[in-house]
Amino acid sequence: MPKKKIDPVILRFLGGFLGMALLLSVLLQVPWVQEQVQNPYTRFIARLDGWILGAMGIPVTVSGTLVRQGNYAVEIKRGCDGLDVLILFLSAVAAYPFSWKSRAAGILLGGILIFFLNLIRTVALFLIGRVSDPATFEIFHVYIWQFAIILLVLVFWIYWVGREKRAVAE
Asked: Tens digits of per-residue pLDDT, 86-128?
């Protein structure tokens, strides 16, 4: 039986995706990037959570990355900021063989989507944690919300690829 060759376009996509995802993931480990980009961004997420919760009539205090109401507190940590999902999405869009203008638009729209999905996630997790036991909070934190965001971002990426393919074909 003859061996099937793997399409070079697929290989370029996989190589570009894996290479960029690895590079950006390593970049997030650099102390300067953590101090100048990631930590301020995570504090910004916590402040937005505090503002949203306050607008919902739930008085909280925010200190750094800690959102607190009375004895209950949630800390927005590395991995809770949505940057890992953003790295995967950005890598998949940048590696796909469309024009750079199309890729830039995809990255911008997907980045906005991921930002707001993650914001909804962190606020929802605070609310869930207030009214449930720690085990239930962990199920939502580790499994349900992680899966939901990854699935929604994957669906958006598939939509983006289909939309761009149709645009190129026209």
From this structure: 999 999 999 999 999 999 999 999 999 999 999 999 999 999 9
d(CA 78, CA 42): 8
In a domain, 28, yes or no: yes
Query: Does the residue 3 lie in any domain?
Result: no
Is residue 126 within 8 Å of residue 49, measured between CB atoms? yes
- Token readout for 160 is 């983006």
Instruction: Encode pLDDT of 2-47 as tens digits.
Output: 777 888 888 999 999 999 999 999 999 999 999 999 999 999 999 9
Write out the residue range of the structural domain in which residue 68 sits.
8-169
Residue 44 lies in a domain: yes
